[in-house]
Design goal:
heterodimer; A: Beta-Lactamase; Arc Repressor Mutant, subunit A; 2 domains; 5-stranded antiparallel beta sheet; B: about 280 residues; alpha+beta; Beta-Lactamase; about 50% helix
């Protein structure tokens, strides 16, 4: 494969400034059809360019607890990272599993960590690898990693930048969900709010009718639902319309 | 703040979300959002509340004590700009509470003015036609929001919508379902509960809903009407609604059809005077 010729690393300045720049790009895609893969590819390209790397990729957890490649700076990287998953080893996997940044600064270090994977990396001309986890809430949902032809660590500022771009990628995922799943979530939220209110009211009704405290009233409602196999919300609705009264047989 | 000229609403919303995401775990986002909104729009206080179009909900985050008092006031009274915004789905802009407030929300306007609030700007949080909450801006000085502030507040409202949905999707299932339509559908017979970060908003006021249930039995009416009676009692007695509700639940206060409307005579509930003293007859 051809590597991107080594470039002078851009001077790192303000992390927020860089995030903001990346977000201007994000916002352009938000307006109409937000394409998550396209956006993540942009983030990867930025990460690669800004830290003077030759390749990079973003992997996200799939539904079976594995990782899948969502974006990469080149087709060749995609192949490499597919091996990463197949071999059960590599920087993205380590960052994903540990929730910590992974840095291997030389072929020897890489080999020690990933004996099966490193020969593929060496073949592609990479001498060092870094990865950072992507976090959504308390959960690690994936990782962003870069490969470089030259050995040695990234500077602190560069690592910060890679982390910042991983944050940006995570928010892109958040945004995509806001677009694709928001109506469903909004209805879910409305309905959860509504049932919570009805449950509290029903507790009060049963407590008053049965002369118990609130907690006992809730126990009665719940065990009635369990005994009769009726959904809680149906039991609650009958308590409120008055058709179900204590004793709740 | 970021050293960038103000961009379009979408850019700003994305930046707000980026700042939240980089700042800490999602449970802290609502609070961070209202504080940042207060600073960016130069108002005195900001509150974020869950609220369905029928006015049911709870405060998720406030920027400080003033916003907390204003949110509580509107909940206690059952009136105010936030309920109107939730019901109508349109922003409610009140640049001069003294001039327009008393006609629209007499009790709220009086309470707000007494607390030094001169302007209120409320933005509904909408997803399509579904209203899920409101973002309330309170300011100690009267006057319109500038165009810039108005657009900024709108971006914060959009960001707040995304944050509430994000918290609602606490386990990420909607995202995964979105990524793969074949997944999901776990045969849910019940509505999914509110996630902890949002359940607290309702939980703090649960005692009022429970009391409404009890009073609805006492007055043989609906819980909604009972809640109106509770609010009216708290207002005329000049007591906090939460306190009145707690009295009802503890059976220190009953509602009846007497002229006074209430009695404080303890009346032993029928059947089971104190469930703590023996095994429950329902076991």
């Amino acid at each position: 494969m051809t590597l991107i010729p080594g470039k002078a690393r851009p001077l790192m300045t303000d992390r927020e400034l860089l995030i903001a720049d990346a977000f201007v790009e994000l916002a352009d895609t938000l307006v109409d059809d937000f394409d998550l893969v396209e956006f993540l590819s942009t983030v990867v390209d930025r990460a690669v360019t800004l830290v003077g790397a030759q390749a990079g990729g973003i992997m996200l957890s799939d539904q079976r607890g594995g990782l899948e490649v969502l974006a990469s700076s080149s087709h060749a990287t995609r192949l490499v990272e597919l091996f990463e998953v197949q071999n059960d080893e590599g920087p993205c996997l380590d960052a994903f599993r540990t929730g910590r940044a992974v840095t291997r600064d030389s072929p020897a270090e890489m080999r020690a960590s990933w004996p099966g994977f490193t020969p593929r990396l060496a073949e592609a001309g990479f001498a060092s690898a870094q990865a950072v986890p992507m976090r959504l809430r308390n959960e690690v949902i994936g990782a962003l990693n870069v490969f470089r032809a030259e050995p040695g660590p990234l500077t602190d500022a560069e690592m910060k930048l890679v982390r910042a771009l991983a944050d940006v990628a995570t928010v892109g995922i958040l945004q995509q969900r806001a677009v694709s799943a928001s109506s469903m979530l909004a209805e879910q939220l409305q309905s959860a709010l509504h049932s919570r209110v009805l449950i509290e009211q029903a507790k009060g009704i049963i407590a008053e009718r049965a002369g118990t405290d609130i907690d006992s009233a809730f126990d009665m409602i719940r065990s009635h639902a369990r005994r009769t196999g009726a959904p809680l919300r149906a039991v609650v609705a009958r308590v409120i319309d008055g058709s179900l009264r204590p004793p709740l047989g | 703040m970021l050293p960038h000229p103000p961009g379009t609403g979408g850019v700003r919303t994305a930046r707000i979300l980026a700042g939240l995401a980089a700042g800490g775990p999602a449970s802290g986002w609502p609070r961070a959002l209202v504080e940042s909104c207060r600073d960016s729009t130069s108002v005195s206080g900001v509150g974020l509340a869950l609220m369905s179009p029928d006015g049911v909900g709870g405060t998720v985050a406030v920027s400080g004590a003033l916003a907390q008092r204003m949110e509580d006031l509107q909940f206690a009274l059952g009136e105010g700009p936030c309920r109107e915004a939730a019901r109508s789905g349109a922003p409610v802009l009140v640049p001069d509470v003294r001039a327009t407030g008393p006609h629209r929300w007499p009790a709220f306007a009086a309470g707000a003015l007494e607390d030094g609030v001169r302007a209120v700007f409320t933005f509904p949080l909408q997803v399509g036609v579904a209203g899920i909450g409101v973002l309330d801006l309170y300011r100690g000085s009267r006057g319109e929001l500038t165009d810039e502030q108005l657009s900024c507040a709108g971006s914060y409202a959009d960001a707040a919508t995304a944050v509430l949905l994000h918290l609602q999707d606490a386990d990420g299932s909607a995202f995964r379902a979105g990524a793969d339509p074949s997944s999901g559908g776990d045969g849910d017979r019940d509505d999914p509960p509110l996630p902890p970060a949002l359940a607290d908003a309702v939980g703090r006021r649960a005692v009022v809903l429970q009391a409404a249930g009890m009073v609805s039995v006492q007055l043989d009416t609906s819980p909604d009407v009972a809640l109106v009676r509770l609010r009216a009692h708290a207002f005329t007695a000049e007591r906090p609604l939460l306190e009145v509700a707690a009295d009802v639940v503890a059976r220190r206060l009953r509602f009846d059809d007497s002229e006074a409307g209430t009695s404080t005579t303890p009346r032993p509930p029928p059947g089971d005077p104190d469930p703590r003293e023996g095994p429950s007859p329902h076991d």
